[in-house]
Design goal:
This protein is an alpha/beta fold. It is 31% helix and 25% strand. Strands 5-4-1-6-11-8-12-10-9 form a 9-stranded mixed sheet. It has a two-stranded antiparallel ribbon with strand order 2-3. Strands 7-13 form a two-stranded antiparallel ribbon. Helix 3 runs antiparallel to helix 4 (85-91). The mean pLDDT is 95. The structure holds 1-O-phosphono-alpha-D-glucopyranose. Residues 112, 132, 135, 172-173, 192, 204-207, 231-233 line the site of 1-O-phosphono-alpha-D-glucopyranose.
Length: 288
């Protein structure tokens, strides 16, 4: 029996510069895909995977996310008075029991590894998951559930991966693959944003991880890596060899909602599956 995954760290401190001016006053994690903000997709995916404690690593101007996971008394009262039960239920859908969502601030933008390290006191000695809300994954079951199921058999550390074009390796963490078994790949090496000529494979890490608490010991050293940032990938790479490490080629479609085109495609893809919108969306795509 491997210790269960009950905690998730969601780094949400990024500036969202690629979406300015939309993200001047609202966090990029609050951008909606259809009617739901990105952060809510991530939390729902975690809950589906049986994760109980949600840890958000926030930054300045991110307070609105705390409000999103709290009561909106005025709104709820008005909806109640008007008898709008359906809307009321939606407004209340993200109310977790008090104490299950925690917030910790990353005070300086020093990189993804540093953001995860900021949560070390809340993670404590437990294995934990990480999801990057920008990476929206449409999967049934969700990617985190697929990973937790694999973890329950294999233990250790895990990353979700997908095959990318070789010219794109410099946008991702990339694994050195070992033995394959179904959609599970033993990880023998991990490198952040390699040049296509140097990439050990085209299996790229997308933003879903299961990590052992020892990763924090490596993050503690604050080593600076690719792009001058403290990289999660570098700390994870140090665990290879001393702990099991697997990549899961998840089933589902990933949208890079940190880019405009990825976010737009996510909207179209979700809308095309919504009976109320599908016909109009198909018409639009056909005729424009
Ligand atoms: C981060 C990680 C990278 C991973 C990517 C997935 O990079 O550092 O290893 O492949 O997310 O989206 P970022 O996109 O923040 O530069």
């Amino acid at each position: 029996m491997h210790p269960p995954i009950k905690k998730i760290v969601l780094p949400v401190a990024g500036l969202g510069t690629r979406f300015l001016p939309a993200t001047k006053a609202i966090p990029k994690e609050m951008l909606p895909v259809l009617d739901k903000p990105l952060i809510q997709y991530a939390v729902e995916e975690a809950l589906e995977a049986g994760i109980e404690d949600i840890i958000l690593v926030t930054g300045r101007n991110k307070q609105v996310m705390e409000d999103h996971f709290d009561h909106a008394y005025e709104l709820e009262k008005i909806l109640q008075e008007k008898g709008k039960e359906d809307a009321l239920e939606i407004a209340r859908s993200m109310l977790l029991e008090e104490g299950r969502i925690s917030y910790v601030r990353q005070m300086r933008p020093l990189g993804l590894g540093h953001a995860i390290w900021c949560a070390r006191k809340l993670v404590n000695e437990h294995p934990f998951a990480v999801a990057l809300p920008d990476d929206l994954i449409k999967g049934k079951p969700g990617a985190l559930k697929q990973m937790v199921e694999a973890y329950n058999e294999l233990g250790g550390n895990m990353v979700a991966t997908m095959n990318v074009a070789r010219e794109d390796t410099s946008k991702y963490g990339v694994i050195t693959p070992g033995a394959h078994s179904g959609n599970r790949i033993a990880v023998e090496g991990l490198v952040e944003k390699p040049h296509p000529d140097d990439a050990p494979s085209t299996q790229a890490v997308v933003g879903r991880y299961i990590l052992q608490p020892e990763v924090m010991d490596h993050l503690n050293k604050k080593a600076v890596g690719a792009g001058g940032e403290i990289q999660l990938t570098d700390a994870m790479a140090k665990l290879i060899g001393s702990q099991p490490f697997h990549a899961i080629e998840f089933e589902g479609q990933r949208f890079d909602c940190g880019s405009k085109i990825g976010w737009l495609m996510a909207n179209l893809s979700f809308a095309a599956e919504d009976p109320a919108m599908a016909d109009q969306i198909r018409q639009l795509i056909k005729f424009r």
